[in-house]
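Regression test case RT-17, inverse folding.

Input:
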């Protein structure tokens, strides 16, 4: 089932509450059929941005929201043809599953036979046929999430808005439903804006990710760009684990307390820092490795073991190795890092 998709454009959209600016004026373009994830900590402005797109908030003077060629800035949510799933799902406890899914169709006065066919289609898509006549109170968290999504899709929205829809679920169910949602969004092809503070959700679901902080956009890019080419320390430290190496540049190399790291493409002298991800380092013979330290902790995580290594840099470094490798605390190790894995941040 493919839905019509619609590009979205926000132009100089800011938001002020009671004299306090919570969202700095921003420009944002979302492609038709794209899943765009707004990622950031609480209070960063991501939900406010979503509410501006939905029509639940109006931007400050001069801000404009467009769906395709239509200026919808002044339109309320009920006239924008958006489907929205909230964090708490906001399901109607007095209606059963079928009644919840078909509620928007009833309000729109869709003919009864057409509405029933549409609800049946969504029940099948969400694997809820066996629960169609159950009250909401008898459903599990995952089932409620699917009902909320089906209700949002029933009127065939041109934009789908999801505000932390998996947050209330336990970790195992959240991981399973994240994969299901990713498959579903690809099949639907609907323009989707997804708000989350969870990095794993953003990486799996987003065609592009907008990283936000303190009411501003820090970076927009694909998951790979955000992870491997962060535009700032705020982005790099929020997305994934980041190691810092500090030292002095000498003749094209970074000299640290734990050794000398070849970085010939870097400046020739002066204090400097480089960064890298835990999976981009490998263990090496300490006699010949560019960095050397001592294992302070080894945390077994199943498919990998995360080593905490001291003495190689001003801060402890994290290095991921295959889970079957066993290393004791106090073991002296060397660390090698591929030059292309090093990240330089201002």
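Golden output:
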């Amino acid at each position: 089932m493919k839905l019509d998709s619609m590009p979205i454009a926000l132009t100089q959209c800011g938001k002020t509450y009671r004299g306090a600016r919570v969202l700095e004026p921003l420009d944002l373009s979302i492609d038709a059929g794209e899943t765009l994830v707004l990622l950031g900590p609480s209070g960063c402005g991501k939900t406010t941005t979503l509410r501006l797109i939905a029509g639940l908030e109006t931007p400050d003077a001069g801000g404009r929201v467009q769906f395709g060629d239509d200026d919808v800035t002044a339109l309320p949510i009920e006239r924008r043809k958006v489907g929205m799933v909230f964090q708490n799902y906001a399901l109607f406890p007095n209606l059963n599953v079928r009644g919840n899914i078909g509620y928007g169709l009833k309000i729109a006065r869709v003919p009864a036979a057409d509405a029933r066919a549409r609800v049946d289609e969504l029940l099948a898509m969400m694997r809820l046929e066996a629960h169609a006549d159950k009250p909401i109170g008898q459903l599990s968290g995952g089932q409620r999430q699917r009902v909320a999504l089906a209700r949002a899709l029933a009127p065939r929205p041109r934009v789908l808005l999801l505000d932390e829809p998996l947050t209330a679920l336990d970790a195992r169910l959240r991981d399973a439903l994240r994969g299901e949602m990713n498959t579903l969004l690809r099949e639907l092809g609907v323009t989707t804006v997804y708000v989350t503070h969870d990095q794993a959700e953003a990486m799996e679901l987003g065609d592009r990710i907008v990283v936000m902080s303190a009411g501003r956009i820090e970076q927009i890019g694909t998951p790979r760009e955000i992870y491997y080419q962060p535009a700032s320390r705020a982005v790099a430290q929020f997305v994934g684990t980041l190691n810092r190496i500090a030292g002095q540049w000498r003749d094209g190399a970074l000299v640290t307390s734990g050794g000398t790291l070849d970085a010939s493409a870097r400046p020739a002298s002066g204090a400097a820092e480089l960064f890298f991800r835990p999976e981009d380092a490998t263990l090496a013979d300490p006699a010949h490795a560019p960095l050397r330290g001592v294992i302070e902790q080894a945390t077994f995580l199943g498919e990998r073991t995360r080593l905490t290594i001291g003495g190689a840099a001003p801060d402890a470094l994290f290095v991921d190795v295959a889970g079957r490798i066993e290393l004791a605390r106090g073991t002296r190790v060397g660390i090698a890092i591929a030059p292309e894995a090093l990240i330089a941040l201002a």
